[in-house]
Amino acid sequence: MMIHRRDASTLHQTLDPKFFELMKNPQLPNILLNDVSSFRNLCKILSSFTYLSCAVFIMTPLILMMNQHFHQIHPIKLMFVIPGAYPWNIPPYGLVYKFHFIAESASIIFALIVSGGIDSLFTLYIFQISGQLREMSYRITHTNSKTTGHKKIIRECILQHEVLMQCRDILEKIYGPVILFTMLVNAMNLCSQMFEFTQMMNVSIQRAIFFTIYMMFKFVQTFVYAWAGSQLTAESQKYKEAVYGSHWQSNKNFMTSIIIMLGQRPLVLTACKFSIVSIDIFVKVVNTAISYLFLLQTIHDKK
């Protein structure tokens, strides 16, 4: 996002003013805000699991150390937010340990909140583009060769579609690497977490809660990108169907304009030209995680 901050600013300045301008039309709010509850609820779920993941990461070592103190286990085993080892000595209960704990807690909070914010911002852009596509479908559906100013409406829709294609290109430029990286890492994370969980002999309540929340966070994060990409493709397809379904048969010039509009490429998001962003990519991530889980279990059983 920092590398492409100028492109992100251009995208924001292109979509936001147009969307609020359309909202001023009393006939359009219901059309533009169609399915807004799905986008909003999905972002709420993602944010909830983001905050829960932060809380679980930070609270788990505190709870375990308090449990040792309550059961009078000495010396108490010090734990960090991020499991690992440092190449220097960390005295227990000292200032250095507190600094490490605070630094790791801050890094977890910043990382997850930034991640959740970027994921939610992606759905906002998709929602705004989809809203404009619905508005264009509405205008085309209520336009024919006898409508006053139909040439102007068609010209505006063609130009607006070109602008949306430019916005799609910017989205691919910014979020293509993000989506591809997220899908690859989430597939590995889901596989490793499930394998580690299945190998545990005794599963504590804290570990089960951590596993459930973290897995749900990764599932929802993957689903958000895949579902949003599918929504954009679906709205683009509905727009083409609305163009084809308009009353263009009685006027040759109107027919020519409709043919030009039907020749416009649909809005389809791709992740670095590697894969189309749709529900299928979510299914592929889940299938990949499960396939490698079975592979790891087979190798482990043979050993």
What descriptive keywords fit this protein?
single chain, 303 residues, mainly alpha, 1% strand
**Helix amount, in percent?**
over 70%
Q: What's the mean pLDDT score?
A: 82
Unreliable parts: none
Strand order of the largest sheet: 1-2
- Major sheet: 2 strands, antiparallel
Please count the helical segments.
8
Gyration radius, rounded? 25 Å
Record field, number of beta strands: 2
Tell me the overall shape: elongated
**Terminus-to-terminus distance:** 45 Å
Category from helices, strands and their pairing: mainly alpha
Strand content: under 5%
* Helix-strand string: HHHHHHHEEH
Secondary structure layout:
Layout: H1 5-23, H2 29-32, H3 36-70, H4 95-141, H5 150-198, H6 205-245, H7 252-262, E1 270-271, E2 275-276, H8 279-302
Antiparallel strand pairs: 1-2
Helix pairs in contact: 1-4, 1-5, 3-4, 3-6, 4-5, 4-6, 5-6, 5-7, 5-8, 6-8
Quick overview:
The chain is an all-alpha fold and 303 residues long.
Descriptive account of the structure:
With 303 residues, the protein is an all-alpha fold. It has a domain at 5-35 and 126-302. It has 8 helices and 2 strands; from the N terminus they run αααααααββα. It has a two-stranded antiparallel sheet with strand order 1-2. Helix 4 (95-141) runs antiparallel to helix 5 (150-198), helix 5 packs antiparallel against helix 6 and helix 6 packs antiparallel against helix 8 (279-302). The longest helix is centred in the middle third of the chain and has 49 residues, at 150-198. The mean pLDDT is 82.
